[in-house]
Amino acid sequence: MNRTIETPRLELRPWTTEDLEGARSIYAAPAVTRWLPPVTVVGPSDGLETLLATWVAADSTSAGCLGHWAVHLRSSPEVVGGLSLQPAPHASGSVAIAWALAPSAWGNGYATEAADALVRWAMHEGGVQEVFAIVQPGNARALGTAARIGMEWVIDLDQPTGEPYRVYRIRHGDLDWED
Which domains are seen in the chain, by residue range? Predict the structure, then answer.
């Protein structure tokens, strides 16, 4: 399965170990890390190289549409974002999408463009019937992205501390395939 996805402005491709600085601009930025799940939060100088190597190794053996993608502008090799598709918790056969952008790339519609492309690819190429997103309620950017790609709120997941996470879903039949 070809894991490279192109949109009018972006290319989504598997991460490589050479993408470390691009990954650092995303996953070590305080404005981003405040919204990441604990497993993805790394310090500015430790852990990210190991996490990136884990993604690269896992993606080389992943079956179907699961994995991690680096996002860059088609006009530049600079990595501006990252996305992943993982098995959705408590939803057999479904996947969960996650996305993050470098703060320097915010406000351009890249998250919406990339997430929409990845959802469509997973449904078309991977045969996925539904995709979930789990979003912290205070993350207005992520909530907006979920809505813009056609996801609908389905439930809140209680957390031991803080506000419950919001769960969004899009099903194959929800997509307008004329796009």
Answer: 5-174 (3.40.630.30)
